[in-house]
Design brief:
By secondary structure, the chain is mainly beta. It has one domain: Porin (Beta Barrel). It contains 5 helices and 16 strands. The protein has a 14-stranded antiparallel barrel. The chain starts with a helix and ends with a helix. The N terminus and C terminus are likely disordered.
Length: 372
């Protein structure tokens, strides 16, 4: 546990120092949606037990659990009745000796077909609908991951991972941003126990915004009392995610994995279970029942918050709310299909969405020959 303790201490020291800087709260929030129906159905509790290609998102240290063959993961989800579209793709390439792995991940969250009504009204006051044009507001993230085994015995496994990520955001032709950041993670398997830690945005991820408006657009913005934005930099504060899980044998062909994560943010008070300045803590809980590594049932809870009770505007009484999720998975040889039924709001005001993801293990000719 020495390497784990040293790494965790360094992360805590770095984040505590970085918390003194000025950051924009909820910056790059699209990077906190999740990846893969498995992780979403388990409430995002993944950093200790993730062992597939989605680890490039959750904890890059988990990528090294992929062995022998490349793996492809795909996911598409639509939110708010199809207004927001979210896509995830990852490809992982193990080395010949399975001691290290390279992963490539891409994310896109976008709202398309937004109507630009800047020039709807002509100078004479008439409406000209031909002047309406559509544009998209899209956020992109590209991650290059590296994962390596630090120690592996029958009783103990220690894995390390690192992400380098590039962020691109654009709002039509009006605004663009580029950013860069680093994540680092560690996983420890000790018997049936799983431990994980991830330092996200450990270098304080930034977005540098630039804006482009024509003179006519500037004139309309000025006449409608809108500020014309100028170049700016948006900083994302580091965060630390700690995870612990355990696998239980419930029958000869079935196991249960239970995991809890604690998401520590350092950008001031948030509406979470533990509220502090600058540190707030948001817990996540996930369960997965594995039947012979073929069929999976999952459930999770996250995003605990205090809010006013429904209809109680007079007494201002606050109650705990949370986001439940559930899902299932099915594996046929090298193909795994996962499903998640997730809630975007809370248990009292549900906004559920269906999420499907696909995992493909690219078995090569070498493995086919071994089987023969």
């Amino acid at each position: 546990m020495n390497r784990f303790s040293i790494y965790l201490t360094l992360c805590c020291v770095f984040v505590s120092l970085s918390s003194r800087a000025q950051f924009r709260k909820y910056s790059n929030e699209f990077l906190n949606i999740g990846a893969g129906a498995r992780g979403l159905s388990m409430g995002g509790a993944q950093v200790a037990g993730v062992a597939d290609g989605t680890a490039g998102y959750w904890n890059p240290a988990g990528l090294v659990n992929i062995k022998d063959d490349p793996q492809v993961n795909l996911m598409h989800a639509e939110y708010f009745a199809g207004i927001g579209k979210y896509d995830f793709v990852s490809v992982a390439f193990p080395s010949a000796n399975n001691k290290r792995i390279i992963g490539i991940t891409g994310l896109r969250f976008a709202v398309d077909d937004i109507m630009n009504t800047l020039f709807l009204v002509e100078p004479d006051g008439t409406l000209n609908y031909n002047n309406i044009q559509a544009f998209s507001s899209a956020d992109y993230a590209f991650m290059l991951s590296f994962s390596q085994k630090l120690k592996e015995t029958e009783k103990k496994k220690v894995h390390f991972g690192l992400n380098a990520k590039v962020i691109h955001r654009n709002v039509g032709k009006f605004a663009k941003a580029w950013g860069f950041g680093l994540d680092a993670g560690l996983q420890i398997y000790q018997g049936k126990w799983r431990f994980g830690v991830v330092g996200r945005d450990i270098t304080s991820t930034f977005n540098t915004w630039s804006f482009s408006f024509t003179e006519r657009e500037k004139e309309v913005l000025y006449l409608t009392n809108n500020e014309i934005p100028v170049k700016s930099t948006e900083m994302t504060a580091p965060r630390l995610v700690l995870g612990v899980g355990r696998e239980f044998r419930i029958s000869k062909k079935a196991t249960l994995l239970a995991e809890t994560n604690f998401d520590l943010t350092f950008d001031g008070k948030r509406n979470t279970v533990i509220i502090g300045d600058p540190v707030s803590v948001d817990p996540k809980i996930g369960l997965e029942c594995n039947f012979n590594n073929v069929f999976f049932l999952r459930a999770g809870i996250n995003n605990f918050q205090k809010a006013l009770a429904d209809g109680d505007t007079l007494n201002q009484k606050k109650v705990w709310i949370y986001q439940p999720s559930a899902g299932a998975g099915f594996r046929i040889q090298s193909v795994t299909i996962d499903y998640a039924f997730t809630n975007l709001a809370n248990q009292s005001n549900p906004l559920f969405t269906h999420v499907f993801s696909l995992r493909l293990d690219m078995a090569g000719d070498k493995n086919k020959k071994k089987k023969n």
